[in-house]
Structures are given as structure tokens and as C-alpha cells.
């Protein structure tokens, strides 16, 4: 069982555009499919309602870790925490990092989610599998988002 998910994406958009898509809570919500309650602030929780069909009952919760403009955006969360009857707060969250690097024709975006080895064994494999597939879909979503508008 791997401990981390990594996705690498070359986007035909400048780092400033990708940064805005990641860190403006309204833009993030558009491509990620979550209606966030307010802006991202390092050290603060971020919450909202998932708008992805079939998951509208799920409350999205994360804690923003770092916002280094046009370089690094990171947050912690509880992966695949979709059962409203379960309290996930005692679990160790995983760390999601979006790293940006300028390249010749745009931006290299590297997404990493690490810490699956600390997810409770009973839900670790499913959380990894669902998030691995979920991040693949989200990478397509952000690609579409930053290349369709300015």
C-alpha cells in the first residue's frame, strides 16, 4: 500500500492563473465542486458544501497550511470522509500540497497527498483508492478551468 498520491500536470497557463484557480475560494469551488463559506487563510479551517452530484450531503472540511504565492498551496483534511454519522476528527489528517513551477509554455502543477499510512487501517485502502481516482478527475477539472478562461 502506497502512502502518497502524486499527480503531475503541465498546464498551458501562467503560474499566476493557476495560483488564482487554486487559492481564490470561489474559483477553487468552481472546478473542485464545493461551495466554500469564505476565503482560504493559512492556519484557519476552510469549510463548505460539496456540490458534486451524489455527494451534496457531504461537508467539505480542511485546514489551510501554507500559501506561498505562485509556489505552494497546502491543506490538511480527512480523506474520503463522506459518512455524516462518523466523527473523523480523532484521525490524523492527510496533507494535500499543490506545488507550482513555471515551465516554458505554462505551469507544472504537482499535486501530492501524503499520510495515508496514518489513516485508520479499516478505511485506508478505500480512502486511497477513492482519492487517487478523485484527484485524477480534479486534475482534469482544473485543466479545463484554467484553459477555458483568462
Descriptive notes:
The protein has 150 residues and is of the alpha+beta class. The protein has one domain (4-23, 64-148): Alpha-D-Glucose-1,6-Bisphosphate, Chain A, domain 4, CATH 3.30.530. It contains three helices and seven strands. A seven-stranded antiparallel β-sheet has the order 1-7-6-5-4-3-2, with helices on one face. Helix 1 (15-23) crosses helix 2 (25-32). The protein is globular and about 45 Å long.
SSE diagram, text form:
Blueprint lengths: L3 E8 L3 H9 L1 H8 L1 E3 L8 E6 L8 E10 L3 E6 L16 E10 L2 E9 L6 H28 L2
Antiparallel strand pairs: 1-7, 2-3, 3-4, 4-5, 5-6, 6-7
Cα-based radius of gyration, to the nearest Å: 15 Å
Order of helices and strands: EHHEEEEEEH
Output the CATH class name: Alpha Beta
Portion of residues in beta strands equals 25-35%
Describe the biggest sheet? 7 strands, antiparallel
Summarize model confidence as the mean pLDDT: 95
Oligomer kind: single chain
N-to-C span: 40 Å
Number of strands: 7
* Tally of helical segments: 3
SSE class: alpha+beta
- Give, in spatial order, the strands making up the sheet with the most strands: 1-7-6-5-4-3-2
The CATH superfamily is known as START domain
Per the principal axes of the C-alpha atoms, what is the gross shape? Answer: globular
The total number of structural domains is: 1
Question: What name does the CATH topology carry?
Answer: Alpha-D-Glucose-1,6-Bisphosphate, Chain A, domain 4
Amino acid at each position: 500500500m502506497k502512502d502518497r498520491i502524486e499527480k503531475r500536470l503541465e498546464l498551458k497557463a501562467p503560474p499566476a492563473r493557476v495560483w488564482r484557480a487554486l487559492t481564490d475560494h470561489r474559483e477553487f469551488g468552481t472546478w473542485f465542486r464545493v461551495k466554500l463559506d469564505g476565503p482560504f487563510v493559512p492556519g484557519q479551517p476552510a469549510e463548505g458544501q460539496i456540490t458534486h452530484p451524489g455527494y451534496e450531503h457531504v461537508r467539505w472540511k480542511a485546514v489551510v497550511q501554507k500559501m506561498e504565492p505562485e509556489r505552494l498551496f497546502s491543506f490538511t483534511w480527512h480523506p474520503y470522509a463522506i459518512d455524516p454519522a462518523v466523527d473523523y476528527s480523532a484521525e490524523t489528517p492527510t496533507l494535500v500540497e499543490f506545488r507550482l513551477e513555471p515551465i516554458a509554455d505554462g505551469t507544472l502543477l504537482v499535486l501530492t497527498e501524503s499520510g495515508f499510512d496514518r489513516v485508520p487501517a479499516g478505511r485506508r485502502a478505500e480512502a486511497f483508492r477513492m482519492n487517487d481516482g478523485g484527484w485524477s478527475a480534479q486534475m482534469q477539472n482544473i485543466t479545463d478551468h484554467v484553459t477555458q478562461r483568462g
